UniProtKB/TrEMBL annotation:
<dbReference type="Pfam" id="PF04026">
    <property type="entry name" value="SpoVG"/>
</dbReference>
<comment type="function">
    <text>Could be involved in septation.</text>
</comment>
<keyword id="KW-0717">Septation</keyword>
<comment type="similarity">
    <text>Belongs to the SpoVG family.</text>
</comment>
<dbReference type="InterPro" id="IPR036751">
    <property type="entry name" value="SpoVG_sf"/>
</dbReference>
<dbReference type="InterPro" id="IPR007170">
    <property type="entry name" value="SpoVG"/>
</dbReference>
<dbReference type="GO" id="GO:0000917">
    <property type="term" value="P:division septum assembly"/>
</dbReference>
<keyword id="KW-0132">Cell division</keyword>
<keyword id="KW-0131">Cell cycle</keyword>
<dbReference type="GO" id="GO:0030435">
    <property type="term" value="P:sporulation resulting in formation of a cellular spore"/>
</dbReference>
<protein>
    <recommendedName>
        <fullName>Putative septation protein SpoVG</fullName>
    </recommendedName>
</protein>
Amino acid sequence: MMKITDVRVRKVTKQGKMRAVVSVTFDNEFVVHDIKVIEGERGLFIAMPSKKSTDGEYRDIAHPINSDTRKILQDTILDAYDKAAVEETADGEVTE
């Protein structure tokens, strides 16, 4: 099983529901960029990178195959997001 070896959180300061954009590295060999942390009605969740198709719908271009892997990925990303929020400096910069 691949292990998550790095999570980079870039907080978003604009208004709206998106809170951060995240890059996740697996086994120090493979990275997925542009995973979004979104504030939903029931709390934070992740949205996988996607692109707009010819029919106007957005389709994930990378995503977990099963719910267990998605839960591990989401829990790890949201934990890193929470830690980044704690590590914010007084002037609002995020340390990585």
